[in-house]
Amino acid sequence: MRPSGRNLSQMRPISIETGVMAHAEGSCLIRVGKTHVLCTASLEETPPRFLKGTGLGWVTAEYGMLPRATNTRNRREAAQGKQSGRTQEIQRLIGRSLRAGVDRSALGERQITIDCDVIQADGGTRCASITGGWVALRLAVNKLLKAGAITSDPIMDHVAAVSCGIYAGQAVLDLDYAEDSEAGTDGNFVLTGAGRLIEVQMSAEGATFSRDQMGQLLDLAEGGMADLVAAQKAAVA
Amino acid sequence: MRPSGRNLSQMRPISIETGVMAHAEGSCLIRVGKTHVLCTASLEETPPRFLKGTGLGWVTAEYGMLPRATNTRNRREAAQGKQSGRTQEIQRLIGRSLRAGVDRSALGERQITIDCDVIQADGGTRCASITGGWVALRLAVNKLLKAGAITSDPIMDHVAAVSCGIYAGQAVLDLDYAEDSEAGTDGNFVLTGAGRLIEVQMSAEGATFSRDQMGQLLDLAEGGMADLVAAQKAAVA
Amino acid sequence: MRPSGRNLSQMRPISIETGVMAHAEGSCLIRVGKTHVLCTASLEETPPRFLKGTGLGWVTAEYGMLPRATNTRNRREAAQGKQSGRTQEIQRLIGRSLRAGVDRSALGERQITIDCDVIQADGGTRCASITGGWVALRLAVNKLLKAGAITSDPIMDHVAAVSCGIYAGQAVLDLDYAEDSEAGTDGNFVLTGAGRLIEVQMSAEGATFSRDQMGQLLDLAEGGMADLVAAQKAAVA
Amino acid sequence: MRPSGRNLSQMRPISIETGVMAHAEGSCLIRVGKTHVLCTASLEETPPRFLKGTGLGWVTAEYGMLPRATNTRNRREAAQGKQSGRTQEIQRLIGRSLRAGVDRSALGERQITIDCDVIQADGGTRCASITGGWVALRLAVNKLLKAGAITSDPIMDHVAAVSCGIYAGQAVLDLDYAEDSEAGTDGNFVLTGAGRLIEVQMSAEGATFSRDQMGQLLDLAEGGMADLVAAQKAAVA
Amino acid sequence: MRPSGRNLSQMRPISIETGVMAHAEGSCLIRVGKTHVLCTASLEETPPRFLKGTGLGWVTAEYGMLPRATNTRNRREAAQGKQSGRTQEIQRLIGRSLRAGVDRSALGERQITIDCDVIQADGGTRCASITGGWVALRLAVNKLLKAGAITSDPIMDHVAAVSCGIYAGQAVLDLDYAEDSEAGTDGNFVLTGAGRLIEVQMSAEGATFSRDQMGQLLDLAEGGMADLVAAQKAAVA
Amino acid sequence: MRPSGRNLSQMRPISIETGVMAHAEGSCLIRVGKTHVLCTASLEETPPRFLKGTGLGWVTAEYGMLPRATNTRNRREAAQGKQSGRTQEIQRLIGRSLRAGVDRSALGERQITIDCDVIQADGGTRCASITGGWVALRLAVNKLLKAGAITSDPIMDHVAAVSCGIYAGQAVLDLDYAEDSEAGTDGNFVLTGAGRLIEVQMSAEGATFSRDQMGQLLDLAEGGMADLVAAQKAAVA
């Protein structure tokens, strides 16, 4: 009954290719079905101003989408002279999610910027950005550890994300664009490898939802995490 | 143990004063403790361009904060030349939440803009904006009904919101600023009068959370709704 | 013959409520008829850069208007990405006027920002902003004096403002919106408590004016000052 | 006692050279002492949108200053991405002043834009812009009359402007930069050829002023008008 | 003697992979050594406004660079709120170059936008954008031809580009970043498949150049075109 | 056969009037036919930040055009809130060209900004800006030399520019607007007094060109340089 023929609780195929950018301290191209996001981690050895002298580091994120990542061309935000509210909302979410998995004291006074650029979009770009962004971050931190710049690992656990929603009356895992644009309710779930929750964002897009439905979506998300964390592990091995 | 001396499941005092703006089709000043938000509804008899000819109406929202609503003065967004990511995120949430309680077909091809301007801030401004914004919307729609411009009520139910969080290890209802700035996890919950969910936004701010804690916060939010809806009813009576 | 039924030389009722903002060093809500402006004074213990090392302080002002302060909704300046020419002109006037009543050497190297936000507009918002802004400034300076941060009072006199105009061929005091939008000539007058002039701005809006008419308007303004200064005195007593 | 050695009531030399721009419908270079402003009138045969169908025309103005018109280089407003508050205030004044001398019904549904670009600045640039702007406008309207596009002259009278101020305790006419930067009070006066007032803008810059002083400045301005109108007449003859 | 060990007249390896974007009417990923650019063609069936009713079509281009395409991270232009002068210069060049190879009358009243997004940069990004942009354009036009939307081919010839420069005193073909940053003179050459010139842009970056040197660079560019056109032919075959 | 009646290799009359701006360290008004550009050099005794401590100076340029420099009025860039791509491209070219003639080490850690403001445009404004900009620069540097601030002359040679193009099938020197808007190919050539090349920019505007034509245009440019350099020499003598 899903446009893609998937089971209700079936993720799209996930692939994470690392080392795709010659210059970045960490990088990967994550593909979740036809959603493709290029994630890079850029290290700066000075923290943002508001952290000077605190001993704490910072992880932040920026998000963008190529104009023709989508079915019809979107206007380039650089040409429009500003980032949309949607873009800002997403990049704030990515940054907040990744920081929740980092011990900023162990990172020390430095900053890592995660750039997530959507090459092709088919739903779930913010979730793919978080999942791939964590891999880029992991690789950049590995470099710091290997170089002896830091001695204890600031990354406390995996961080990954997946969307779920009520599509045609049923709870389904990992919405693609065809489902997302029809879903009455959808949610984005960010979890740690150990299953702790970092972010839950559920919205009634046309239909309100019950507490039961909320539980069903969360069940699906927890199930999907296994695939995502496995893909992350394989990528950074 | 709460800075305000409230019980864990106790809301701050709520007051909603209507008709505070001479020109608006609907208006109220909502006070949730020391958080004060002025909400107005402005009616336009033409819909936004993308709805021309669809028979559907639109409800949208804008959010602002007076520079000295807060403890230290914030730079005025108009002077900075743009709305912050936070502002855009909030006003998108308010608009989405209110639309979830509206039958846009019954509203017809017109637009109602809800302006939520924070006069004084002490935590929970987005939730107070939604709760007060609904009152302004209700009053503006009442005018349309009374004037015979529309014949069936497009407002399907109450919409109200409250924040909850884990403060000092305990789940508490209706965070004020002192709590919000210390809470490890916080959430915003938008519900209908009938208890259906419209938006759930939970974030780990420093501490991840469990599914159990999520349930506790939601329990508290459901409890707080009674007070909010009662205040709305009294205001629009 | 005036739409409001007032005499030619009659001010609208003035009320100034102080202490309306919990966080500001000084604040008031000034009501001149149906024109309502919220004025706050925010103190910073460092002066603007161009005054560093001069021993002089600074008083500046910002002005805004809620979108639905007026009969039809105005676009929010923060959303438009810039302050209009009118807004900038008004806030420059407020700052200049208030500085004219301050001994900046006695104030010392600190800055006080006066925010004037129009909650409801019915003509004369810039004048109400100056009159109310002075009250907020007075209260903030009182705090500095009481705390012993400054020893001699930098406020040299009251500063207040009123508009006058030629309406239906007659000189009238304190134009409301109905008059202002029809007046052939109008003027804004800023004076000290002792009757010295700070700013005179008269414009032919449709009809040029004579020196005699200019004198009549100034006479009216001088008369109106008594009410304004009395209201200020009562407010800060 | 004036830096320039002028008498208290002596204007700087005025010269107005017309036809300096090959493309404009009307143009002049006005020199008031060392203040040089290039003024052009550009005609469009359609009015601004808000006047469509009203039968009325529009006159508007824009103001700019070359970066090195002044003693130290100013940042180019185009590079900064916005016009300063001062620029907007001035161009609004120029437009308002020139419109006060025009019968917009006789002009008909067309728009004339007056560009005033300060080539060199030595005080009084806004006044020179108004005086020169009127000449450019006069020349453009002459073309319309000559071509038979309009049949009755929409220009009702000369419009010109001059600044006066209290310098070293004395009222002086036509402030240059050395005086302007020291003057305790200054004012800009826009008058018609017949001596009617269009705009009066007086500001206490450091010293408040009396009604008597206001009268003295206005006396001086009225005196200066003779020279300005004579120069305009010679230019457009 | 070249950092890469290439001969003076040797291009870097060129690869052009087509069909890389699911949604675009035409797309390719061009790799010239370590410079990788994603090029897409987006078709709109309406022309820009200035061409309405002329029977002519339009080809335009936009250029961007991922923040970490380069050795150190560049600020995202969308976040900065504007495209740099360099970006605008490059995208104007790409658009102009591609239009020079198109019969806009045969294209008819439609618009094709070529987006060139640099994934990884190692010198020569504008040249790779032109070469790859032509492939995306070719593929989009092929679709139009196949669909019968146009009947005669509007593409008159291949368009490709290469940079040359004086590096360490010698004329070299196809500068990479290491060479480009040291070259005293460099040039960009856009040619047609038949060897006609479209754009020549040569700049003295530190060292002026002679007419002879200009000839040498042009010789090299003509030589490089064979490889570029061959790669284009293979890609679109 | 040229609209102006000039020979194919004939420049328009050139005049360069120096000392036209009272405040600038160097200034001239250059007239090339009906193209008039005001060029000023502004000296700052501190270099841009990226050169601090390097011992090197900087020469940069900004370009603007009065709104009515052209046949129909252009929108003022300051009012639009940004400089166009064309403007940025031109001012980058002017700065690059002038720097190519300067020994930045001899200039020392200071910055000279060349402002080129087009008063009237009839084609070739960027070339006139470079030619006139060099004169302003030369005069400012002369002041530094005379004052003993620098001891060896940082200006290595004259820098001047001219445009050429294929008009009506023939190569012609110094295009005016009537020719420029019709030319199939045009080019801008920046040369030193000794005939070395600094910039060559040739574009096919509607018609591609051959290497032979490129040579013809360069021949013409070299011929035109004699007149330009002679005019510069006369101006700075």
From TrEMBL, chains A, B, C, D, E, F:
Keywords: Nucleotidyltransferase, RNA-binding, rRNA processing, Transferase, tRNA processing, tRNA-binding. CDD domains: RNase_PH_bact. PROSITE patterns: RIBONUCLEASE_PH (PS01277). It comes from the Bacteria. Pfam families: RNase_PH, RNase_PH_C. It catalyses: tRNA(n+1) + phosphate = tRNA(n) + a ribonucleoside 5'-diphosphate. Residues 10-140, 159-222 form the Exoribonuclease phosphorolytic domain. One of its GO terms (biological process) is rRNA 3'-end processing. It is an enzyme of class 2 (transferase). InterPro entries: ExoRNase_PH_dom1 (IPR001247), ExoRNase_PH_dom2 (IPR015847), ExoRNase_PH_dom2_sf (IPR036345), PNPase/RNase_PH_dom_sf (IPR027408), Ribosomal_Su5_D2-typ_SF (IPR020568), RNase_PH (IPR050080), RNase_PH_bac-type (IPR002381), RNase_PH_CS (IPR018336). Its EC number is 2.7.7.56. The keyword Transferase applies. Phosphorolytic 3'-5' exoribonuclease that plays an important role in tRNA 3'-end maturation. Removes nucleotide residues following the 3'-CCA terminus of tRNAs; can also add nucleotides to the ends of RNA molecules by using nucleoside diphosphates as substrates, but this may not be physiologically important. Probably plays a role in initiation of 16S rRNA degradation (leading to ribosome degradation) during starvation. Belongs to the RNase PH family. Homohexameric ring arranged as a trimer of dimers. This is Ribonuclease PH.
